[in-house]
Design brief:
TIM Barrel; alpha/beta; 14% strand
Amino acid sequence: MVKNRKPIIAGNWKMYKTATEAVAFVRNLELSVAGMDDVEVVVCPPFNALVPVVEALRGSRIAVGAQNVHWEDQGAFTGEISPGMLKDAGCRYVIIGHSERRQFFGETDVNVNRKVKAVLQHGLTPVMCVGELIEERESGITEKVVRAQTEAGLAGLTAGQVAGMVIAYEPVWAIGTGKTASDADAQQVIGYIRGLVNQLFGGEVAAQVCIQYGGSVKPQNTASLMAQPDIDGALVGGASLDVESFTGIIKAAAGN
């Protein structure tokens, strides 16, 4: 079956790049990916670089996303940022529930769900991350873990909301380690997630929802990952910090 979902390649820059470096990067990236309209390209800089990056990309097909968000519209939450602030800054996507947020900052499935709902209410697209630890994979409970995270994250959403969002499967043991899930392993879990969406929201929604793979994605392994029937793009970490490597991933996803 031919996939009709447009692949989304998103770069999660984490805590890298000043605003000046970020602007220089996206100007070079825009030239490098010109004409590659078959792929949705997203960059997710740190908060301080969001506005200048949006300005630098005005009129470009490259979208901008944020790496985190709070679920409240406003309030006494020192150090946090609201969905409305991100929308006002020009963001279109928001990464939610990344394993580093879960591991280092106590992100829970309940809070992931709150953030997904808040982002959707403001017309932004959530990129909801799920994935298992190495000990969970070795214990054979990958599907159990991914199911619990996915069900909790999507709780209370409408079919239409789920159809328009992004789910990113990121096995925690593959993030920043150089280890990548095999094409077959990534497809198996992502196919399982799509089947779970089918159970919860129906076949039409399952056919529309974009499900990415993340975890040591590189230009060399992108094409084979994207060739899998249920993998619709990639959430890229370290390789998105270099224009040449990120462009190579985008080209591979576009079939170039």
